[in-house]
C-alpha cells in the first residue's frame, strides 16, 4: 500500500520488554516519533525476576523510579551463594561498596508487572504503543532497513507497511533480525537448560525487611531461589545439557524435581508449598550474536545476546543496551547517517561490559565442573580488592574501569586449579 504521513516514524521498536521500552522511552524523551510494536498482550509471564542495583541510574533516566519504588516489590539486599552444600554461605552485598551505586538495594519483581510499568512509562513519554501487533517482516532496500510489514494479531491479511528511518529489534530470544542475517550463534561453552516455576507458601528468609537471591550448587548445575511479592517464590534449576541427557528422565517436571531433590536446603524450603504453574523451560541459554547493528537497524537486549542467569544480568544488560542504542540512534539521526558504521558506536560500548560478565560466567561453570574449593568467591573473603571487584560486577557495575583486572585474576585462578587437579591425578 502507499505510505501516508501516519505510516512514517523516526524509529520503529519491535518488542515491548525492558530493552524495547527503554530504547523507545529515551528516543521519545529526545523528541523523536517512535512506534513500538509488541506481539503479546500485557501483562504476560516472563522469567528474570532478580534485578541489580546498577539499574537505579537507568530508572532515574527513564523517570520511572518513583513508580517502581511504590510498586510493593520485595527489596533485595544482595545475592547469597551456597557452594557444594557447605555450612558457610557467601553473601555479596552492594552495600559493602556504596561508592559505586546510588542505592545499595534493588528489587525482586514479577516480570509481568515490572514490564508493564516500563511499557506504560514509554507510552506516557509519547511512544505510540500497539499490542498485540505482529511484525511479519522487516523491509529492506538492499542492505538498508526501511520499515516493517505488521498488523494486529497474527492475521497477515491485516498487515500493512510502516516505514521508519531506524528499526530496533527488541524481539528477545526470537532474534528476528539476527536470524535473518545469520548472526545468531549459541555459545557452545554454555550449553545449558533451565527449568523453573513459582511456588506459594514456601520459606522466605527475611532480614531487616529485605530478601536475598539464593544460589545453591548441585551436581550438573545450580538452583535459584527468589522470593517475590504475595507469598510467591521463583525457583529454577540451570543444568548442563549433557547432565540432563545422562540422567535420562523424560519430561520437564521430572527433571526439575530431580534437581530440587539434590538440594536438602531447597527441598526443606519447599516442603508443604504449592506449585503455582507448570514447569517452564529455556534451552540453549546463552548466545552472543556476531553483530548488533546494520544499515538502518540495531539489536538490543535479548535480541542481541542472551546471558546465562547466574548473575541476574539479563534485565540490566537489556536496559543498558536500550539506553546506549538510543544514544547512538539519536546521534545518527542528527547527522542524517544511519549506516551500520555510524551506529556501531553502540555496539562498541555494549561489547565491553558483555565480555566482562561472560568471563565471570565461564569462571562460575569452571568452579562447578571442578568443584574448586579455593575459588575466587571464597578467596574474596580474605582479599579486599578481589571482593570489591566481584561485588561490583555481581551488582551490575560492568562499566567500572578497574574491572579489567578481574580477568587476569580469573585466568590465574583457573590455571592454579588445573595445576592442582593435575598434581592430584599424578
SSE topology:
Elements: E1 8-14, H1 18-29, E2 34-37, H2 55-62, H3 65-69, E3 75-82, E4 90-93, E5 106-107, H4 111-124, E6 128-130, E7 133-141, E8 144-152, E9 160-169, H5 176-181, E10 192-200, E11 211-218, E12 221-227, E13 232-240, H6 241-247, H7 252-261, H8 264-270, E14 274-275, E15 280-283, E16 287-288, E17 293-294, E18 297-299, E19 305-306, H9 314-335, H10 340-370, H11 376-379, H12 384-394, H13 404-425
Parallel strand pairs: 1-2, 1-9, 2-6, 3-11, 9-18
Antiparallel strand pairs: 3-4, 3-5, 7-8, 8-9, 10-13, 10-14, 10-15, 11-12, 12-13, 16-19, 17-18
Question: What does this 3D model show about the protein?
Answer:
The chain has 426 residues and is of the alpha+beta class. It folds into 3 domains: 5-74 and 108-186 and 286-350, FAD/NAD(P)-binding domain (3-Layer(bba) Sandwich); 192-283, D-Amino Acid Oxidase, Chain A, domain 2 (2-Layer Sandwich); 354-425. The chain is 37% helix and 24% strand. The protein has 13 helices and 19 strands. The protein has helices at 18-29, 55-62, 65-69, 111-124, 176-181, 241-247, 252-261, 264-270, 314-335, 340-370, 376-379, 384-394, 404-425, and strands at 8-14, 34-37, 75-82, 90-93, 106-107, 128-130, 133-141, 144-152, 160-169, 192-200, 211-218, 221-227, 232-240, 274-275, 280-283, 287-288, 293-294, 297-299, 305-306. Strands 3, 4, 5, 10, 11, 12, 13, 14 and 15 form a 9-stranded mixed beta sheet that branches. Strands 1, 2, 6, 7, 8, 9, 17 and 18 form an 8-stranded mixed beta sheet that branches. Strands 16-19 form a two-stranded antiparallel ribbon. Helix 1 (18-29) runs parallel beside helix 9 (314-335) and helix 10 packs parallel to helix 13 (404-425). The longest helix is centred in the last third of the chain and has 31 residues, at 340-370. The protein is globular and about 65 Å long. The termini are far apart.
Amino acid at each position: 500500500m502507499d505510505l501516508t504521513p501516519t505510516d512514517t516514524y523516526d524509529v520503529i521498536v519491535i518488542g515491548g520488554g525492558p530493552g524495547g521500552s527503554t530504547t523507545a522511552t529515551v528516543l521519545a524523551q529526545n523528541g523523536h516519533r517512535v512506534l513500538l510494536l509488541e506481539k503479546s498482550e500485557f501483562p504476560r509471564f516472563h522469567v528474570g525476576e532478580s534485578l541489580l542495583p546498577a539499574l537505579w541510574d537507568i530508572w532515574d533516566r527513564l523517570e520511572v523510579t518513583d513508580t517502581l519504588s511504590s510498586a510493593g516489590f520485595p527489596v533485595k539486599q544482595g545475592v547469597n551463594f551456597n557452594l557444594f552444600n557447605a555450612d558457610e554461605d557467601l553473601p555479596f552485598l552492594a552495600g559493602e561498596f556504596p561508592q559505586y551505586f546510588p542505592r545499595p538495594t534493588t528489587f525482586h519483581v514479577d516480570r509481568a508487572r515490572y514490564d508493564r510499568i516500563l511499557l506504560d512509562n514509554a507510552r506516557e513519554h509519547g511512544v505510540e504503543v500497539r499490542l498485540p501487533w505482529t511484525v511479519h517482516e522487516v523491509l529492506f532496500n538492499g542492505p538498508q532497513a526501511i520499515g516493517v510489514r505488521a498488523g494486529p494479531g497474527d492475521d497477515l491479511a491485516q498487515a500493512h507497511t510502516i516505514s521508519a528511518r531506524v528499526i530496533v529489534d527488541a524481539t528477545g530470544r526470537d532474534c528476528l533480525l539476527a536470524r535473518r542475517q545469520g548472526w545468531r550463534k549459541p555459545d557452545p561453552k554454555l550449553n545449558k537448560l533451565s527449568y523453573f516455576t513459582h511456588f506459594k507458601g514456601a520459606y522466605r528468609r527475611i532480614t531487616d525487611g529485605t530478601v536475598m537471591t539464593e544460589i545453591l550448587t548441585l551436581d550438573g548445575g545450580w538452583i535459584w531461589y527468589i522470593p517475590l511479592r504475595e507469598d510467591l517464590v521463583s525457583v529454577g534449576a540451570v543444568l548442563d545439557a549433557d547432565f540432563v541427557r545422562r540422567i535420562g528422565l523424560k519430561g520437564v517436571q521430572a527433571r526439575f524435581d530431580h534437581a530440587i531433590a539434590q538440594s536438602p536446603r531447597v527441598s526443606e524450603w519447599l516442603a508443604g508449598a504449592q506449585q503455582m504453574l507448570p514447569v517452564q523451560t529455556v534451552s540453549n541459554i546463552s548466545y552472543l550474536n556476531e553483530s548488533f547493528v546494520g544499515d538502518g537497524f540495531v539489536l538490543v537486549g535479548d535480541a542481541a545476546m542472551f546471558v546465562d542467569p547466574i548473575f541476574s544480568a539479563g534485565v540490566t544488560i537489556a536496559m543498558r543496551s536500550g539506553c546506549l542504542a538510543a544514544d547512538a540512534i539519536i546521534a545518527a539521526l542528527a547527522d542524517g547517517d544511519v549506516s551500520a558504521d555510524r551506529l556501531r558506536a553502540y555496539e562498541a560500548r555494549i561489547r565491553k561490559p558483555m565480555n566482562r560478565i561472560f568471563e565471570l560466567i565461564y569462571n562460575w561453570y569452571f568452579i562447578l565442573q571442578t568443584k574448586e574449593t579455593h575459588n575466587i568467591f571464597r578467596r574474596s573473603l580474605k582479599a579486599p580488592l578481589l571482593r570489591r571487584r566481584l561485588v561490583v560486577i555481581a551488582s551490575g557495575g560492568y562499566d567500572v574501569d578497574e574491572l579489567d583486572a578481574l580477568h587476569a585474576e580469573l585466568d590465574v585462578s583457573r590455571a592454579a586449579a588445573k595445576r592442582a587437579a593435575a598434581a592430584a591425578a599424578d
